[in-house]
Amino acid sequence: MIIYPAIDLKDGFAVRLMHGDFDQVTRYDDNPASRLASFAAEGAQWVHIVDLDGAKAGAARQYELVGEMASAVDINIQCGGGVRTEDDIKRLLDAGVSRVVVGSLAVTQSDQVLAWLDQFGPEAITLALDVKYEDDIPVPALKGWTQSAGVDLWTVLDRYPSEYLRHVLMTDVSRDGALTGANLDLLTEALRRRPELKIQASGGVASLDDLTRAKAIGCDGAITGRAIYEGHFTVAQALKAVA
């Protein structure tokens, strides 16, 4: 299983949000490139970077910084935040990003995203599906998690045939940044319905046990942010736990 230590960028700094709330920001690093280098030094093969400024603005904002980080450190980068156009994808890939994360458009403009998957290939794009529960049904959340997609998660996934889609990042937003453990029930059901997908667990990872449980149910990867920044475990310990 791939461990994706997370770096969320805001105003050029590495931060974490609680439940995606821009009013609940914790700043961890003045130099995100140093954090990236430290992750690589501990053995990480991948890192997950989010342009929070881009996500809030609805247009990517930190291409230059991400490009500088990609050129400075030999590591695979999965990056998103504010990706809205074909040009956004091209610019991130040209900057050295290995996989571009597409979020809300995967729900609202699935035909367009399918075309991008066909154009760039399934290894170049990860769909990020952020989920809230409505009457015990998982429903994608949009607009900074403030709006409901009005359609359930499984219907959205069904729009993407397996020949196009490979990587999916799935977040229970009620757990994001809260260190309450990943939603294994949600992930298990997703893997039951779409066993061919490489699903990344996201939201709530707090312990090495969370990582080993995600691996045990078949997750291909796990995103971990706050747990690393606050010393619950190191990248090296995470990699060893899922080896």
Radius of gyration using CA atoms only: 16 Å
CATH class: Alpha Beta
Residue-averaged pLDDT, rounded? 88
| Biggest β-sheet description | 8 strands, parallel, barrel
Mind telling me which CATH architecture this is? Alpha-Beta Barrel
Outline type: globular
Q: Termini separation (Å)?
A: 7 Å
**What class, by secondary structure content?**
alpha/beta
The ordered H/E elements are: EEEHEHHEHEHHEEEHEHEHEHH
Number of strands: 12
CATH topology-level fold name: TIM Barrel
Note the total helix count: 11
The strands making up the biggest β-sheet line up spatially as 1-4-5-6-7-10-11-12
Counted up, domains total 1
User: Could you give me the name of the CATH homologous superfamily?
Assistant: Aldolase class I
Q: Can you offer a commentary on this structure?
A:
This protein has one domain (2-242): TIM Barrel, CATH 3.20.20.70. The protein is 36% helix and 30% strand. It contains eleven helices and twelve strands. It has an eight-stranded parallel β-barrel with strand order 1-4-5-6-7-10-11-12, surrounded by six helices. The longest helix is centred in the middle third of the chain and has 11 residues, at 110-120.
